[in-house]
Structures are given as C-alpha cells and as structure tokens.
Design a protein that fits this description.
The chain is α/β, with parallel strands linked by helices. The chain folds into 2 domains: about 1-30; about 35-205, Restriction endonuclease-like alpha-beta roll domain (Restriction endonuclease-like alpha-beta roll fold), CATH 3.10.640.10. Helices cover about 35% and strands about 35% of the residues. It has 5 helices and 10 strands, in the order αββαβββαβαβαβββ.
Length: about 210
Amino acid sequence: MNTVFLTRFSIKACHELILQCYVSHQKEMVLALKPTIYKCHISLSNLNTDQYETYNLTLAQHPSETPERMMARVLAFCLNADDALSFAKGLSSVEEPDIWAHSLDGTLLSWIDVGEPASDRIKKASRIAKAVKVYCFNSKSDTWWNQNQENFKLFSASVTRFNWEGMQALAKLLERTMDMSISISGDSIYFSAAQGECEVICEELQ
C-alpha cells in the first residue's frame, strides 16, 4: 500500500512540476517576444482644421496588439496631429497612454487612449492631463460604452468611435513600410495607399 501511495504521489508531483515548468516557459516566451516595427509616411489633409502636413511615423506593434488597434493609433494621431504629439508605451506600460503630448515645461497636455479603457483609468488621466481623449473601435465597443457611459459623463474626456468594418478594411492594407494619404473631412477619414483604399467613420460619443 505504501508503495502504491508513493507512486501515485510521485506521479501527481511530477504532473504539477511539469505544469509549473510549462507556465514558466510560456511566460519567458511572452517576455522574449519583441515588437514588430512599422514605418509610415503620411500625407495628411485635415479639411476640418485646414491642416496639411506630412509625417514619418515609426510604430512598435506590441506582440498582443492587433493590426486594427495599431491602425487606430495611427488615425488617432492624425486626428490630433501636432509637433508635440508622440507615441507613448501604450500596452507596454499601464502608466502611459497610447499617445500623449507635453509642453516644454513637462506639463501633460494630452492623454489619448485607444481601445475600451476602464472608467477608473480615465478618471485618473483626467486628473493629470489637460485634455483626455478615447478612441474606441472594437466590435464590442457598443457593449463597453453602454456599461461605462454614465461614469464617463463625470469626466471631461471626449470619446470617439471608429466603425469596426472600416477598421477591418484598413487593417487588411497594413504593410511593414507604407506610403499613405489620409484625408479627414467631416466624420469621415479617407485612407489611400498602393495597397488600396478605404473609409473609416468617426462617431462622437461624448
């Protein structure tokens, strides 16, 4: 009986050890993954603000970031284009937004999040930044907004939604190096590149 008990105990211990090793290995693999670098040359025409500029952007796509999310960051940048604007750590750091802008004295002028952030995060951002903006785009953004809009009304933050179909079409045109034209007129963003064209609709939620 003792031998049987020890054998069963040893098998269980081995299974647990194997599981621990597997989990540890998976964590190491995630940590070892490096971001994918994309380079975008953008000819921007914003008819709403009479802004006509060119930008050379270098984007680091986090291993867990979808093409739709990364392109949402590009659109958010173009909608707020300014010399002080830059990409922050985003998914790589919970303490930073996707895009931000600072004044020369270090004051946080703009905090821009892409996706469907928790209301507590936006509450905190509203305390430290002069302007807070959220650009949601996910297929479940309707549900997210229905659950959070009452809380968001308490903050001085703007919330804009990119239509999911447009973001899917835009993501299909993604390449590691891109030369693109982006034209903003009214609530429409027109995207044109050698790979094709598409339109993304902006809906102001707040």
